[in-house]
Amino acid sequence: MKITQVDVYAIRLPLITPFIVSYHSYPDMPSIIVKLTTDEGIVGYGEAVADDHVTGESWESTFALIQHSLGPAVIGHNPMHMEALHDKMDAIVYQAPAAKAAIDIACYDAVGKKLGVPVYDLLGGRFHERFPITHVLSIGEPEQMAEEARERVEQGYESFKMKVGRDVLSDVARIRAVREAVGPNLAIRVDVNQGWGNAATTLQAIELMKGLNIDWLEQPVKADDLDGMVEIKAKSMIPLMVDEGLKYKREMREIIQKGAAHKANIKLMKCGGIYPATKLAHMAEMAGIDCQIGSMVESSVGSAAGFHVAFAKKIFSSVELTGPLKFSKDIGNLHYDVPFIALNDQAGLGVDVDETVLAELTVRHETLKEGLSL
Fold this sequence. Notes:
Layout: E1 3-21, E2 24-38, E3 43-48, H1 59-74, H2 82-92, H3 97-115, H4 119-122, E4 131-132, E5 135-137, H5 142-154, E6 159-163, H6 168-182, E7 187-191, H7 199-208, E8 216-218, H8 226-235, E9 240-242, H9 249-258, E10 263-266, H10 268-271, H11 274-287, E11 290-293, H12 300-312, E12 316-319, H13 323-326, E13 340-341, H14 355-361, E14 362-369
Parallel strand pairs: 5-6, 6-7, 7-8, 8-9, 9-10, 10-11, 11-12
Antiparallel strand pairs: 1-2, 1-14, 2-3, 4-13
């Protein structure tokens, strides 16, 4: 089996409401969809949701890189040969993890369909039967976030991830309002997205959060400040999760060596796809670091890929892949039984892509074939 055609689509996924984090507000979600076709007529889909602040890529640069470099390079490649695939992509471009993730995911989808098995069976088989879904609250006024949390409790949600990172006083007011709204027992995870900047500011916030029963605190300091994470971890009783500070094996080695986090948020868009995500999970497991599969707010395609990794590995205790629940229109049909997710057993990613919707949301499309010079 070999790849004979690569289609790359630049799309914009419409959000029900804007998604607001510490560094940006998204009115819609720009995404890149890759469609691989093999010489046997098998089609695999992948996705890249790039983020200038996290992956170091843009929507435009990701499209161009796949169009001009990565896409032509994988034509003729056997999608089953994942180690060789990543070695080839790494030799072409340094980092660019989201772009590589799109091709990686599409290859896994195609291989699963070829063999007639779900992607999780390619990763060691299914371990988890289902995961609870955490509702993500984007940044808003305290009363607004509290009201949204109340509504989600009525729908059955039992855990929340709060986006904060504006300033300590207003952020603590947001957290306190949500805690009062949902009661003392439901899980609240606080994601600062680097917004508190350094350890000193974070420790001030932690002091003000006493008594609010925070499940864990995610990436309060700048991504490259692992020493700040070490200081916070040593001085706080709140479990600490690394996110933007973890992309590749090099960062994971340093996190383990320094003891910089209790938990790791592994995202396919940060590390390059399914194959490298499993390597990070194995490293974390050996070091006793609990893992979560996180999201850059992907469609059904990217979200399903993350779920397959999480369902296959024991070390994952939580998932945060709620992109499809935030879109008013999606290209795929990943099914949620809110507040849980239980993957189907269909071959590949188990997602049917609606080509009509894909075309409707597409801003730009290029087709790459064997022998076609761009």
